[in-house]
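For homework, think about our next protein:
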Amino acid sequence: MRKVVLIAAVAVSLILLSLISHGTQLDRYTGICVRSGASYSILFNGSATVLIPQRLKIGEVYTVEGHMRKGRDGLIMQPKSLYRGGNVRLEEIRGVYWSWGNGRWYVFSRTGRIRLAKSLDVALADVVDIEGVQYGELFYPVRVADKGPVKNPIDGAPWKLRGVVLSDRTVWNGSERITVYPPHGVRLKLGSYVEVTGIVHVGTRVVVYSSNVTVLGQANRAPVGTGRIGSVEVGRCLVLRDGKSARLNCTDLRVYGLRARTGDVVRLEALNRGTSLICINCTVVRRRETLPNGICSWKEGELGKVSGIVEWVKRYRNGFGIANVSRGNCSILIKLSSSLNFNPYRGDTVTVYGLFKLYRGERAIQPFTERDVCYGRC
């Protein structure tokens, strides 16, 4: 009878010990903090959430130990211990990082645009590999690898390019012209070397709708006649013909934005745009009035100045005419196109700037516009 009572007592003791041990056993949970307030945080492990009654840092992985219980809105754990780190099953995404400000960060991936829960410590328009979890509408990054800028533009995605500004909406990146729409109030300055970031549209041409433009420096400089697209050509040149697109003796390219007259000598500082040059800083260093009178030193194919007295004038039915001008023992013919609106008479003193050439075997000078002829000395 004693043995039976003793055995029964031992059995009861073991059962009580078992119950006590089970009541003291701690639950363990590892998850990413996806919500946090003054006195609470929510951890998520990819499948289930747990409420922790203390403030934690969003986006960090935490491991907690304590007693898990069911609350009205889900699982609750009062932690006995808590530390950062632990193993969580993470999703992997690759895409291009972008931000529109005001707490809106995104990754443009092949599957679409994914909104991030926090900013990344990488440059905008860089390719990133991210590991994290999706919770609601946000993706919570845990590990990030920066793979550098996008090499080739992807339609609808962020892109970063560097190049020389060719016009107020064109940037030369070394191989092609890119159309850039800068942010409101920002003006692209000719010859600047810039970095542009924005959303790209790839169609018949590449267009960047820029959110940021950074000036990194200025275009490379080269002696006039030796530059390439995107370089600034520098030199001293004679203006062979003025106008909206001027001709100079130092380059085969037309020059735009030049404020000079035929016969002026200019210091050229102009941006090479491939088919033309455009002045950035072009100044007249010698005015054409200082040219010597070439009536006696005529050389075919050269640009010069002639000043003398009109000996005779002949006009043809088509409006074209010639005038003979002399000075001392020297004389020359002036070719008078009808567009010049210049009608000198015998005895007039005239000055003409133009190109020396032969006309029916005789020495002649051909002015180009009304600006190249005048009465008197000019």
Observations:
- The CA atoms of residues 179 and 207 lie 5 Å apart.
